[in-house]
Amino acid sequence: MVETTYFDNSAPGEGWTRRLGYDSELLNYEDMISPEFFELEREAIFRPAWHYIGRADTIPRPGMYFTKELEVLRASVLATRSDDGQVQVFHNVCPHRGNKLVWDTDASQEVQGRCKTFYCKFHGIQFDTTGKVALLTEKNAWIGSQGEDLKLAAVPFEVWNGFIFVNLDPQGPRETLREFLGDKYYHGFDDYPFELCSERYFVRMNARANWKTMIDGFSETYHAPTTHAKTFNTAPTEHMVYGAEHFGVEGKHRHMVFAGVPEDFFNFDYERLTNAYGTGPRHEFPEVLKTLPEVSNPTGLEAWGNSSHKIWPNFFIQHYHPGWYLTYRMCPLSYNEMRFEVEIFMPKPRNFSDTLSQKASIFMVLEAALQDFSLLEATQLGLETRAFQRYPLTDQEVLIRAFHQEVYKTVDAYRKCNESDVITSS
Amino acid sequence: MSSTQVNQLPAEFSELEQFATQWANTTMEAQYQARLRCSIADMQPFYEATKRRIDDIKAYLDGKSFDDYTEADHALGHLAIAWVPVAEAIEVFKQTRVPDSKGYWELVQEPASFQ
At what angle do helices B40-62 and A352-384 cross, to 10 degrees? Predict the structure, then answer.
């Protein structure tokens, strides 16, 4: 077993929990096991929020499109690019009879492709990429102009550094994306060359666990030497060696910085031969690194390895050394079911060694995710027994505390405005 | 998506030819699935033979631009990538499946290799 001292997390004297202004009360996880609480979360948390649905550079040419399911809001959206080069986002619903418009084989599944018009499988009406009717079938049977007036329903969206965000509040967005993200995040990544990371891997997994179990799992790092003991060739010790270096809270959003491992550190032959490690490929991409934004490394950590930005409510952007990033989406399906979506973006390989290093590291990430997943389901099953009412958190778990407090606060505020039976945090 | 045709590797790597049909699949999804179908004992010969040549494969393919890859070069590259999950099972987990894990990920999209 390796006991590395490289991870020298230096918590402030008073601890992260106190520094960030939190108390040390035990935490109640009713918010993860109550079906009623989940129903409140739909409107309280997800309805007003902005939601990332995909990157604009995955639909670079006119007519390219993808659909995105947002089950928690019972929504399906269709993102496309019109002939004038603009991104367009619509509800993926036909305005004639209300059926889902773009799908293939299984109406519940997402699709992507390229077309001139969107063709309704029900009555053959076609819509162009601006949402207007391009071809009306049974033209003489329509009453007045009801047929020609059909139009796809536009969804409010904003594109931030290439990330398309939508807002599904029927009254319209309560705040702009800039207000939602806050200036620090909204401008914090302006210099990061996201577009250079054009190699996109999209991975999906389903878990029988509340969406917040995964957010909590990725809100601390010190589970790694236990959960991933074989992968990282480690064992848990009394001395914290896998703690994060820095925690921060920005409004509803949170972030965490983790140190990297030395370039020549490998546990296994296959890592050395592929020049990859569980935290990514090892080949250098200085054109990405040199523009690492301050928001990713707020303390200027020399041994910077990665930083995780947890955007409210369920979207993560994580930057890694030496210059790639990934996104997580924890998509709620019910109070104890979720779909986990990972998009990994890497720079274009220059040669086979780069390709091998990148794909090897992705296999490692996916293997690690499988280990995390079983733990999440075990967490859900354990919490649902209600064996304990309250649970302690360590100082390294301060972001879990911050997140659940924000969840309870948001749902309580919603409850106060809407009469209904609720579960409170107290 | 798994490829079942016999892939012909470059002549310099003829001793790996016997593994090409089973392992030189073109997607990571298929490469991982190939591992899940095997026991550790099944994979051991492929693991050992390929491990000895990984550095040679990198040197050989790095000498070419992706545009100049032949079909055999593609198969060789895929064989080396498919070796990764096999090596992980043998070196790390000592078993085919990840321990304490019954779930599975779906690799919905990955970039085309060697472009």
Answer: 140
* Partners of A232 in the β-ladder: none
pLDDT in tens, chain A (426 residues): 333 333 445 577 889 999 999 999 999 999 999 999 999 999 999 999 999 999 999 999 999 999 999 999 999 999 999 999 999 999 999 999 999 999 999 999 999 999 999 999 999 999 999 999 999 999 999 999 999 999 999 999 999 999 999 999 999 999 999 999 999 899 999 888 898 999 999 999 999 999 999 999 999 988 887 888 888 777 777 776 778 889 999 999 999 999 888 888 899 999 999 999 878 888 877 677 777 788 888 888 888 899 999 999 999 999 998 889 999 999 999 999 999 999 999 999 999 999 999 999 999 989 888 888 888 999 999 999 999 999 999 999 999 999 999 999 999 999 999 865 555 554
User: Three-state DSSP class for A336?
Assistant: coil
- For B62, the closest of A273, A351, A374 (CB atoms) is A351
Q: Is A380 on the interface with B (CB under 8 A)?
A: no
A contacts of B30 (beta carbons < 8 Å): none
Closest CA to A315 of A325, A306, A324, A323: A325
> Which residues, 6+ apart, have CB-to-CB distance to A123 below 8 Å?
A96, A97, A137, A138
B92, A199: Cβ pair inside 8 Å? no
Distance from CA of B46 to the nearest CA of A (A): 14
DSSP-derived 3-state class of residue A297: coil
Tell me which chain A residue has its CA closest to the CA of residue B52: A273
| Neighboring chain B residues of A272 at a CB cutoff of 8 Å | none
Which of B61, B87, B101 is the closest to A270 by Cβ?
B87
Nearest to B111 among A200, A207, A371 (CB): A200
Best residue in A359, A372, A380 to probe B by mutation, most B CBs within 10 Å? A359
Q: Any idea what the Cα angle at residue A106 is, between residues A103 and A111, rounded to 5°?
A: 40
